[in-house]
């Protein structure tokens, strides 16, 4: 058996342990409670800004369902921040260098990216369940029934995928920037304060941006957005560039 095969097997065998370590570190302490709370608070804030569900009576059941899933897609920026938190938390507390030195940069990179994917999925599901459950109570019965229909839940995979990819994107930004507050601004505030208004006013431009691509994956009802498959390819392009930047950063910086 060649050394390359042995090394590959060792890396694969180590990955579950590394993933478990990253998830235990992520869910330790009270910070994660705030992140999970944001997964419900951000769509709530956006919904209140747009006057929904207060204006749900003037919309058809199908339109309300469309609005619900469009608002649920705003969980993606929270997932982006959550993915970056895997890196910036360790950088903030000064333990990132120790993790890299003791475990190895490649192993740490792999574990954090896989953990980011898992956390993105968990963030999306938590936000939809907590925020969606609270909103459903204030909706008219016919809208609530339409929201719980099988046709409505076909929109869930797009929202979940957008959050998962957003979390991986955030993990790359965390590696590149490694500054907690700067990364928070880039992952959470800019998508909501800059890219979301751009989606409303110039979607033909915004669709090529990271948040615009995620919006296309989630099938947001904005004119000019890409279809889910092209949007996924654009998002993969951003992820590839950011991932390459993250690898270069890890190799080129002293931790």
Account of the protein in words:
The protein is mainly alpha-helical and 255 residues long. It has helices at residues 3-26, 31-49, 61-72, 75-93, 96-103, 105-136, 141-147, 156-177, 180-201, 203-206, 210-217, 228-252. Helix 1 packs parallel to helix 6. The longest helix is centred in the middle third of the chain and has 32 residues, at 105-136. The model is unreliable at 3-10 (pLDDT under 50).
Layout of secondary structure:
Blueprint: H1 3-26, H2 31-49, H3 61-72, H4 75-93, H5 96-103, H6 105-136, H7 141-147, H8 156-177, H9 180-201, H10 203-206, H11 210-217, H12 228-252
Give the strand tally: 0
Strand content: under 5%
Helix/strand order: HHHHHHHHHHHH
Strand count, sense and barrel status of the largest sheet are: none
> Structural class of the secondary elements?
mainly alpha
Helix content range of the residues, please? over 70%
Low-confidence sequence ranges: 3-10
Radius of gyration, whole Å: 19 Å
Q: Specify the number of helices.
A: 12
Give the CA-CA distance, first to last residue: 35 Å
- Rough outline: globular
* Mean of residue pLDDT values: 87
Offer a quick outline of the entry.
With 255 residues, this protein is mostly helical. Helix content is 79%, strand content 0%.
Question: Features of this protein?
Answer:
mainly alpha, 0% strand, 255 residues
């Amino acid at each position: 058996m060649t050394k390359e095969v042995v090394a590959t097997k060792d890396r694969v065998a180590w990955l579950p342990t590394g993933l478990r370590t990253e998830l235990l570190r992520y869910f330790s302490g009270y910070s994660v409670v705030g992140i999970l709370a944001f997964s419900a608070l951000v769509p709530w804030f956006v919904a209140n800004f747009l006057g929904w569900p207060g204006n749900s009576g003037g919309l058809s059941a199908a339109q309300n369902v469309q609005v619900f899933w469009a608002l649920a897609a705003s969980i993606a920026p929270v997932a982006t921040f959550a993915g970056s938190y895997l890196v910036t938390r360790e950088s903030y507390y000064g333990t990132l260098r120790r993790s890299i030195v003791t475990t190895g940069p490649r192993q740490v990179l792999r574990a954090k990216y896989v953990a980011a994917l898992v956390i993105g999925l968990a963030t999306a599901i938590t936000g939809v369940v907590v925020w969606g459950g609270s909103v459903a109570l204030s909706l008219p019965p016919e809208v609530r029934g339409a929201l719980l229909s099988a046709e409505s839940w076909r929109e869930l995979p797009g929202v979940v995928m957008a959050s998962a990819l957003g979390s991986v994107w955030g993990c790359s930004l965390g590696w590149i920037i490694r500054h907690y507050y700067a990364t928070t601004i880039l992952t959470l505030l800019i998508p909501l304060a800059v890219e979301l208004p751009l989606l409303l006013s110039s979607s033909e431009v915004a669709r090529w941006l990271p948040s615009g691509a995620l919006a296309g994956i989630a099938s947001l009802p904005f004119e000019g957005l890409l279809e889910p498959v092209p949007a996924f390819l654009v998002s993969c392009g951003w992820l590839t560039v950011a991932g390459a930047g993250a690898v270069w950063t890890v190799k080129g910086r002293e931790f």
